[in-house]
């Protein structure tokens, strides 16, 4: 399967309710990181140096976002890792937001899972059900 196909598969799992907004989707840190990295490379390759103030503001936002997000676990992820994680989570009663939270933060211990903010107790139930099983994702 191509990388683009994997990306579409990842997005389809995290897609928001299509009845409300067909274009709405939850994006993982990995997807944002990959998108901004690709845009940065495209701009570098295009060689255009003169930019409007709006474009400069957008560049600042991209820079600051990449600076922050590159310090998160997403820099170690790949489309395959994300897909495998989502497949592994299908058997658990987690909301899309909770799956995304786990994917973005990659907690490695029970304590880290307990520290994640969760409006529901489902995430904590996940921890109990798996009884500190290895969290390798």
What does this 3D model show about the protein?
The structure is a single chain. With 137 residues, this protein is mostly helical. The chain is built from seven helices and no strands. It has helices spanning 3-14, 29-46, 53-69, 79-89, 96-105, 110-115, 122-130. The longest helix is centred in the first third of the chain and has 18 residues, at 29-46. The chain starts with a helix and ends in a 7-residue tail after the last helix. The model has no long low-confidence stretch (mean pLDDT 76).
- Report the C-alpha radius of gyration, rounded: 17 Å
Specify the structural class: mainly alpha
How can the largest sheet be summarized?
Answer: none
Ends: how far apart?
20 Å
- DSSP helix fraction: 55-70%
Strand runs, count: 0
Order of helices and strands: HHHHHHH
Shape: elongated
Would you identify the regions where 5 or more consecutive residues have pLDDT less than 50?
Answer: none
Average pLDDT works out at: 76
Strand content: under 5%
SS element count, helices: 7
């Amino acid at each position: 399967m191509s990388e683009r196909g994997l990306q579409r598969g990842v997005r389809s799992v995290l897609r928001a309710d299509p009845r409300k907004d067909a274009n709405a989707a939850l994006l993982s840190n990995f997807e944002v990181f990959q998108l901004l990295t690709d845009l940065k490379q495209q701009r570098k390759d295009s060689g255009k140096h003169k930019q409007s103030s709006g474009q400069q503001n957008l560049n600042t936002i991209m820079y600051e976002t990449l600076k922050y997000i590159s310090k998160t676990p997403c820099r170690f992820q790949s489309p395959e890792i994300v897909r495998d994680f989502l497949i592994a989570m299908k058997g658990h009663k987690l909301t899309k937001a909770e799956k995304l939270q786990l994917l973005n933060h990659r907690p490695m211990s029970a304590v880290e899972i307990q520290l994640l903010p969760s409006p529901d107790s489902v995430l904590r139930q996940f921890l109990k059900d798996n009884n500190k099983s290895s969290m390798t994702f």
